[in-house]
Design brief:
The protein is mainly α. It contains 5 helices and no strands.
Length: about 150
């Protein structure tokens, strides 16, 4: 009787682990959605991260030409910096690669912001390379291959 009870408890624990993804290698893949928030990760990436990253790239390619464009660069860098925190929240972070890339995004975007406020194009361009490297590091591990 006791053995049956132990086997039953073990079965329930294994089933729960499979249902909740504990020990499941798929749990290491890209997190499609946070636990409680409505936005899917792909929409945060496409609608926020990619959009702001692309805008920074375009501004830095030709160089901001006036105070307003430097402020726009600072705005985009600020949003990317904030996203580095959001991508770690709500159970989105599956592993060390994701966490490291988010930290790199945070550090590099802060440097872009600092350079934008100083109106230093060369420093902003150098820092932006760190932003794109953080994206590449995470995408190589987590973005689904087409």
């Amino acid at each position: 009787m006791r053995r049956r009870l132990l086997r039953g408890v073990s079965f329930v624990m294994i089933a729960a682990a499979l249902i909740w993804g504990i020990g499941d290698q798929a749990g290491l893949a890209q997190v499609k959605k946070g636990k409680d928030r409505a936005a899917e990760t792909k929409y945060l990436m496409r609608g926020v991260v990619s959009a702001h990253c692309g805008s920074i790239g375009a501004l830095l390619k030709k160089g901001p030409s006036d105070d307003k464009s430097w402020d726009t660069l600072a705005c985009h860098a600020s949003i990317l910096n904030e996203m580095s925190f959001t991508l770690m929240d709500d159970g989105r972070c599956p592993d060390k690669v994701w966490a490291g890339a988010a930290k790199s995004l945070r550090d590099s975007s802060a440097k872009v912001l600092e350079a934008a406020k100083a109106k230093n194009l060369e420093d902003a361009q150098t820092a932006f390379k760190g932003v794109t490297a953080s994206c590449a590091a995470c995408h190589s591990e987590h973005k689904k291959k087409a």
